[in-house]
Design brief:
alpha+beta, ten-stranded mixed β-sheet, 14 helices, globular
């Protein structure tokens, strides 16, 4: 929709440009018995009150998008790519909050991504100054209608949040306004400024907002001088809630981190400069951040304040999957991944980490998408992010950004840009909806054209000038795999998927893409295959698995891969290689080797994180150099726990779970397994239990799903409902 269609005659309003956190007030009249709705957008984030009542418990709305064109530089170069811009709008029923006569509207604004202060950690993401637009539509008992819209009669004042840095923290001065600011007289407030309309498209938000999901009770673990150190018990995204016990003018300061310094347990580590600073008004108020969340487990409190609790906050996405086994390492891997994934679900974005960058990296997101679709029921969330990926493609070159929505970042042309192909395809497989495939298929072809233009001798060797050109990432001891090798893998895989998409859509396969794929395959053989050994790129960091995943190599390639990891017994792979090695080992019948890697107890393994007391997944395998202890990317292997360990997957060619295959790959070391995933047709549940040499299998199949069990060379047709099998 354009502005007129969404907001009618409402105007965008704001305040002084250097103010990032204003309160905005207006009065409007309503008749007795009137029903009302409000269409509203406050950028970057807003809280809405009518007559003192908070209208929604959603946090950090609207969801983030590539709101409008910006003039920015990236790595010192002008960013001149042309993308699509959209802005999300909320519509609420406010009938229950209305009263006869005069009504009070109050809005608190915060910067978010849109208006991040230029002097903040990453002011380059800034789109513009904070702003508000709203349209109240009233329907009276007699059928007549009235409107109240944002305009010049609205007032503003500086809010209690005096400084807000989206990536770090907030400063609040509680003396500025009382808790009744939403209804108190606002005489003396300043007139708002009328701002220009934005050149963007408006959409009603159809993606879940963030909510407080769970309360945690932190424990006091250290105390010195006037500082207290607390442990929330697990690494989370959210905030600490305090009860101010200070006198007027007293200062409270909270600092937050993901770990304690091993050399000094009274000092936080991995803080990323996260803080909350509050000046007391002496009235014992409850305080927490307003317009940002933190990523933390530990925190310190300096000043007179009582810790009430910590709140886990993320997008309101229900869980859809469960995995339980007799192997605690596998259980931890699943549960830590899901927890990390949710801690990185904010504002309609699957982020890389909940504190430092808060960006929707296309590499991390496409890598973990299949596992996420098994574990979470988040169709609307993923659909929204696919729009972001579509929006962030350059309309001229076909270049796909490393983050969606786009902010300054780093990545590579293969593992990141290929999200424009892989994520819509995974969405289609899960939900059976081909509409997004049809809309984005032309964009996929433009992406392949971009890769061709950044190739030399049929190897993808560069990206946009000045940008990174990664292949894999976060390998132990550094990435040794050549970036062109990995990027060609993603080019070939993307075209393979696009050929399937063309068949799904009933379209002719693209000849130019097919030709480019064959040239890319030939280049990989020419540059990286050793005909004497059958290895690609020396069989390092999963290189053989990359090509086996594409159907390349020969029988030696697989044998060498299995022998290498049987002897090594631990991952030496980065974010992409870890998933690919695990998946290929399962698919090629080497389940025992895959299990060995999954529950190995060395440092660069999931059990190593458990030994370190981790409750979320880390950015790096080892703890010798860490930025973040909440990164979901290595958890992509959880898809293998569902598909191969539990054995729940779709029949080849099926979409939307029309046809399912139950084909577990069991080992004696894990005698008990159970779990489920919730499809659009219902839950598929499995349980496996070895007892007295007999394997007891229980499978629940929902209505409308055709399913078979394959195990031990047998194929058994399953019926809807509960199936009990002994083998």
């Amino acid at each position: 929709m354009n502005h007129q269609e969404m907001f009618g005659n409402a105007l965008w309003i704001g305040c002084d440009e250097q103010v990032y956190t204003p309160y905005i007030r207006a009065a409007f009249a309503a008749r007795k018995g009137a029903k009302g709705t409000i269409t509203i957008c406050g950028l970057g984030m807003f809280e809405l009150y009518i007559n003192g009542k908070r209208i929604s418990d959603d946090l950090f709305v609207p969801v983030t998008s590539d709101y409008v064109k910006r003039s920015i530089t990236v790595h010192g170069l002008p960013f001149d790519e042309e993308m699509h811009h959209r802005c999300y709008v909320l519509r609420y029923d406010i009938t229950d909050a209305l009263q006869e006569g005069e009504n009070q509207l109050a809005v608190a604004l915060g910067p978010g991504f849109f208006a991040t202060p230029l002097d903040s950690f990453d002011g380059e993401v800034r789109f513009g100054q904070v702003r508000l637009c709203y349209r109240i539509q009233l329907e009276n008992a007699d059928g007549s209608t009235e409107e109240a819209v944002s305009g010049g009669d609205t007032k503003w004042d500086m809010g209690n949040v005096t400084e807000s840095y989206f990536f770090n923290g907030e400063k609040q001065d509680l003396r500025r306004h009382g808790e009744d600011w939403t209804c108190a007289p606002f005489d003396g407030w300043k007139n708002v400024k009328i701002l220009e309309n934005m050149d963007t498209e408006y959409y009603l938000q159809d993606c879940p907002g963030d909510k407080v999901i769970r309360l945690l009770e932190p424990k006091l673990i250290a105390e010195y001088d006037d500082v207290k150190i607390y442990d929330a018990g697990e690494n989370i995204s959210g905030w600490v809630v305090l009860e101010d016990e200070g006198a007027e003018g007293d200062m409270i300061r909270v600092e937050l981190g993901e770990a304690l310094d091993p050399e000094n347990p009274q000092r936080l580590a991995y803080t990323q400069d996260q803080f909350l600073e509050v000046i007391s008004d002496g009235k014992g108020r409850t305080v927490h951040p307003r317009f940002m969340w933190h990523g933390f487990r530990y925190f310190s409190v300096k000043g007179r304040a009582k810790v009430r609790h910590a709140e886990l906050i993320h997008s309101d996405i229900p869980k859809a999957g469960r995995f339980e086994s007799s192997d605690p390492v596998l259980n931890w891997t699943h549960d830590a991944f899901v927890h990390t994934l949710l801690c990185n679900s904010h504002g309609g974005i699957p982020s890389d980490c909940p504190h430092i960058e808060k960006r929707g990296y296309t590499g991390d997101g496409q890598l973990t998408m299949e596992a996420a679709l098994y574990a979470l029921n988040h169709q609307a969330f993923v659909r929204k992010w696919i729009r972001d990926i579509s929006d962030c493609q350059d309309r001229h070159s076909g270049h796909v950004q490393y983050t969606a929505p786009y902010t300054r970042c780093g990545g590579g042309p293969g593992g990141w840009g290929s999200a424009i192909v892989s994520v819509p395809y995974q969405y289609y497989l899960q939900y059976g909806d081909a509409a997004l495939l049809r809309r984005m298929y032309p964009q996929m072809k433009e992406y392949i054209r971009y890769l061709e233009g950044h190739s030399q001798k049929d190897l993808v060797v560069s990206d946009r000038e000045g940008e990174w050109c990664l292949g894999d990432w976060c390998c132990p001891g550094g990435v040794k795999l050549p970036a062109p090798f990995v990027n060609n893998y993603f080019l070939i895989k993307s075209v393979n998927i696009m050929e399937k998409i063309a068949d799904i859509l009933g379209e002719k396969r693209d000849a130019a893409c097919a030709e480019l794929k064959e040239k890319a395959i030939a280049a990989v053989y020419r540059e990286y295959f050793d005909p004497d050994t059958g290895n690609f790129s020396g069989n390092i960091q999963g290189s053989n698995a990359f090509m086996l995943d594409l159907g390349l190599g020969d029988e030696r390639t697989l044998a060498n891969l299995i022998a290498y990891y049987e002897e090594k017994g631990v991952y030496d792979t980065g974010i992409f290689g870890t998933d690919i090695v695990t998946r290929v080992l399962f698919e090629k019948g080497a389940a025992a080797t895959a299990y060995k890697l999954l529950h190995d107890e060395k440092q660069q393994a999931f059990a190593g994180w458990i030994k370190e007391g981790a409750t979320t997944m880390w950015e790096y395998w080892a703890c010798d150099w860490q930025r973040s202890l909440s990164h979901p990317m290595f958890g992509a292997v959880v898809a293998s726990l569902y598909k191969y360990v539990l054995g729940i997957r779709q029949e080849a060619g099926s979409a939307g779970w029309e046809k399912a295959v139950i084909e577990p790959m069991l080992v004696r070391e894990v005698p008990c397994l159970s779990g489920h995933t919730e499809t659009r047709k219902g839950k598929i549940c499995v349980t496996y239990d070895y007892a007295d040499g007999i394997l007891n299998i229980s499978v629940d199949i929902p209505c409308g799903v055709q399913a078979v069990l394959r195990y031990g060379g047998k194929e058994i047709q399953l019926s809807e409902g509960k199936n009990q099998i002994k083998l």
